[in-house]
Amino acid sequence: MAGCQRTHGRWAARGWCGCGCRDGAGRGCRWCEGGRWRWRCRARRRLVSAAVELRGLCIDTAYGRLVGPLDLNLPAGECVGLVGESGSGKSLTTLALLDLLPEGLRASGTLVVDGAPVPLHGKAHAQLRGRHIGWVPQDPLAALHPMRQVGDQLRETLRYAAGLDRRAAQQRALELIGLVRLPDAAVMLRRYPHQLSGGQRQRVLVALALACGPRCCWLTSPHQRWTRTSVRRCWSCSGNCAPSWAWVCCWSATTWARWRGTPTG
């Protein structure tokens, strides 16, 4: 850790070298070995290559085009705001990215993940859903299963999508509930969706999106039922637990977009 102490000692005291690596001794860090800052760091290169890019997205019907062409570059660790009035196509863009468009709508374009192009249809794209692309829907009550406890839904996602065993899934579910700042995690996992408030249900959806650690997370009207204090706390914990993600937020007003992200269109 001597190299870190000479160059940026305040990070070395925390076990960080200051360039994105946890190991101050130089494991994966070229700074400590005499290289350039950040761009010679293997961890930094991994973050840069994890960016998600959307090229030429178009959504069409038999009667004409609804959305597009749309290009989005989503760098890792950044938040992008997609702003538009109701009916402008924000939700359709999200559904097209997840290959969940309703019948009669057709999407075309290319999704680039880790530098590899992936068509918006087919098995390869379906494997990205959840594991590489997360989604927080606008209506949390409709998105959660009304007959199953919150803990059951979280554990099922962790076991079958993230590949954890039963004990690890339970522990991770408790951690996720804590990350989204819900009190009494053990009690919260035993509750049904109708026993939660609207803001609590939306936080549960954020926890479900965090479960598989996707590269990109889309949030549709994420602050609709939250106070300003709750929004700031959630964004703080999201940035801490997923600093290398690309965040896309769909807003109908520019108020939150100006504060948290960059309006795109």
**What is the string of SSEs from the N terminus onward?**
HHEEEHEEHEHHHHHEHEHE
Low-confidence stretches: 1-50
Mean pLDDT: 69
**Biggest sheet overview:** 5 strands, parallel
What gyration radius follows from the Cα positions, in whole Å?
20 Å
CATH architecture of the largest domain: 3-Layer(aba) Sandwich
User: Treating each run of at least 4 consecutive H or I residues as one helix, how many helices?
Assistant: 11
**CATH fold annotation of the largest domain:** Rossmann fold
**How many structural domains can be distinguished in the coordinates?**
2
Keywords: ATP-binding, Cell inner membrane, Cell membrane, Membrane, Nucleotide-binding, Translocase, Transport
InterPro entries: ABC_Ni/Peptide_Import, ABC_transporter-like_ATP-bd, P-loop_NTPase
Domain ABC transporter: 69-216
Main location: membrane
